[in-house]
Amino acid sequence: MTAIFECKSEFDINVEQLFSFHEEPIGFETLVGLDKNVRVVQAPKNIFVGAKAIIEVQILPFVKKTWVAKHTGYEKNKFFIDEQESGPFKSFKHTHSFEQIGNKSILIDHIEFEFYINFISKYFVVEKLKTQFKERHTATSKTLNTNSKLIFVGLIS
Q1: Which residues, 6 or more positions from 89, have their beta carbon under 8 angstroms from its beta carbon?
Q2: Mean pLDDT, residues 53-69 taken together
Q3: Which of 104, 156, 110, 103 is nearest to 133 (CA)?
Q4: Region 143-148: what's the mean pLDDT?
Q5: What is the mean pLDDT of residues 107-128?
Q6: Which superfamily, per CATH, for 3-155?
């Protein structure tokens, strides 16, 4: 069964600035670099369709898994999508959506995933995602030197 997680925040900048941060290498480096259990094997060259990222994630002490994600969707200043080709999940699709609301912008990280032994592990995965994405949205705000407000973080299905 697929679970759906979202983290949604409002930023006091325009959508072009927010999207640009994610489009530039500094975005990937900043956000992935927050997790000390992740080692970048190959950073994506860009966020266009076809670009790949390869990271090594520590699942448990002394247990590591290589995660290959491929960008499968892109529309400038609107969204980009990356999906797991291989890795720790049965399936993992991450849509990064951007909206302009007045002079502010909204970032929505929408993740659809299936994990092994879902009824047990889903709780642990969701708690990890909550922590990780709150940190990512805060780091985005700090790096862009702007204010942000967390609107929602959690499981929606």
Answers
A1: 113, 114, 115
A2: 93
A3: 110
A4: 98
A5: 85
A6: START domain (3.30.530.20)
